[in-house]
Amino acid sequence: MRRSARDSEDSARKVNRRALFLGGAMTAMFAVLGARMRYLQVDQADEFKLLAEENRINIRLIPPTRGQIFDRNGRLIAGNEQNYRVVITREDAGDVEAVLRRLADVIPLTEPDIERVMTEARRHSPFVPIIVADRMAWDDLSKVAINAPSLPGVTPEVGLSRAYPLDTDFAHVVGYVGPVSENDLAKIEDPDPLLKIPEFQIGKIGVETWMEDTLRGKAGTKRIEVNAYGRMMREIDRVEGDAGDDIRLTIDAEIQDFVQARLGAESAAAVAIDVITGDILAICSSPSFDPNLFVRGISFKDYAALTENDHRPLANKAVQGAYPPGSTFKMVTALAALEAGVITPETAVYCPGHYETGGRRFHCWKRGGHGMVSLSRSLSESCDVYYYDIAQRVGIDKIAEMGRRLGLGMRHDLPMSAITEGIMPDKAWKRQRYEQDWRIGDTINASIGQGYVLASPLQLAVMTARVASGRAVQPRLVRSVGDTELPVPEAPPLGVDGSLLRSVRQGMYAVINERRGTGHTNRIVDPALVMAGKSGTSQVRNISAAERARGVISNDQLPWNRRDHALFVGFAPFDAPRVAVAVVVEHGGGGSSVAGPIVRDVILRCLTPGPLPPLSAYPESQRARMETLLTSLPLRKIEPEVTARSRA
């Protein structure tokens, strides 16, 4: 009995111990839970409230305002205009197609429009806004705002779009912007998130693309609150981005407009350059095109009209075009021979109208020949035989070396698209390109700017500026970025003896100002503005022996695309050069008759105030004709300097 009682007491004590242990464990567990709840509800309350807030807060990028582009005097070339548009965000809209069809009852939307938006929405993240309609009228934008409750995810916006107020004048220089393509993204290793926003626009050609990073700026951000249905309730805050830097070019918009108008409907190019600073004052290619068409989405019809035009309006002939420079190259051959000491300015060569070597006959343009010719007369009357002869004495390698010193055969570093290097051939070049030896005939052809030699109008303008100044002038297109003026480095000496350059310049003076000079009709009679220059005519077809025997067919009797190219280069004033100009007119015929008058007009426009060159600078017999021509030019009225950025 006693054992049984003791066993009962022991069991009771064990039960009590278990109960106490379980009670203690439960108390501890509740204490831990209570502490955790207090931690979550009190200590971490703010953090979890923020997380809950962020579940209904979207962060979106704010595209920056693109930097504007101005001419040297502050006139607007590329700016930004206010643009009304509607966007849709897939994560806020839910059924995108259903929302779009309701939107189509409010504003004009076609089936292709809806399909395009659906395709874009599938391609991009759900939080990325897709542009549904762009460049809308204010009335349509108002209708969208009024119907907002039935259009979840749809947002009316006021943005900025690129606009080019001088359209055709600067199309080839400034270029245009367009939506970012997959090809654009593939070229960039770590693309800016901005570039992934549908319809975000970047530079495609010209200054717009080469200075894209400068012009684009940096994105801002905005936080917006949305409700359970994804509708935007309010904008909580925003951080504005950094606008792109403005750029000021060296070009004078009024001179550019004059040159573009002066080229007219010709397939041509012209470059005017400051001989001292290298500033490009005008650089034009004709015909041109309206870059605004590309910004707004060019139609198939308009694009076909541009691509099917045999005058190639989309090509920038001023920097992309590579032409045989013809007789404008003769200064290069002359300087090479003078520097090598194989001739002096007084050295005379007999021209019977042809030059024979290696059993071949090379003809002068003047069938009867020029007789005895020295350097000055060889330039003024453009005798080919003189250059055939001296080229054989000096050799192609020294001619090519001089050509490169004068800026030929190299790519000049400007923020423009597809700048050509041209071709300044020598023996090594031909061996590398064709695996052939250089021949005597190659040298003869090269001596007068034919054969393998190719140069752009930009290169010819640089060559002329270097001959005029005696310095290695570098062309410059950008004058300032933001508020920072870019320095103008002093051009180093060309390294050619000044007396040799003066001899060549004297020959260029004779071209214009001596009665027998090939460019005499293009003279300037104002003593303070006297011009020097050189004509050139480059063949684009071979002339057979039979045709030469019966008489070479004149250009006006040939189809347009088989006529010679017309070239002319010039600088002025002769005694103190300030501007150099080069003009190439494709299939224009004679350099002196077609390109020469344009060079004179451009030089006068650069050197004198006012919208038109002064009639008093022309020979009296030409003034009536020039007045008719100049006053008929379709010059535009260019707005004065813009002093404030166009911000919306």
UniProtKB/TrEMBL annotation:
Domain of life per record: Bacteria
Coiled-coil stretches: none
Gene3D superfamilies assigned: DD-peptidase/beta-lactamase superfamily (3.40.710.10), Penicillin-binding protein 2a (Domain 2) (3.90.1310.10), Penicillin-binding protein 2a, domain 3 (3.30.1390.30)
Family annotation (InterPro entries): Beta-lactam/transpept, Beta-lactam/transpept-like, PBP_dimer, PBP_dimer_sf, PCN-bd_Tpept, Penicillin-binding_protein_2
UniProt KW Protease keyword: yes
Topological type in the membrane: Single-pass membrane protein
Domain Penicillin-binding protein dimerisation: 62-236
Residue spans crossing the bilayer: 20-39
Keywords, comma-separated and alphabetical: Carboxypeptidase, Cell inner membrane, Cell membrane, Cell shape, Cell wall biogenesis/degradation, Hydrolase, Membrane, Peptidoglycan synthesis, Protease, Transmembrane, Transmembrane helix
Location of the Penicillin-binding protein transpeptidase domain: 269-603
Stored Pfam families: PBP_dimer, Transpeptidase
Protein name: Peptidoglycan glycosyltransferase
Species annotation: Cereibacter johrii
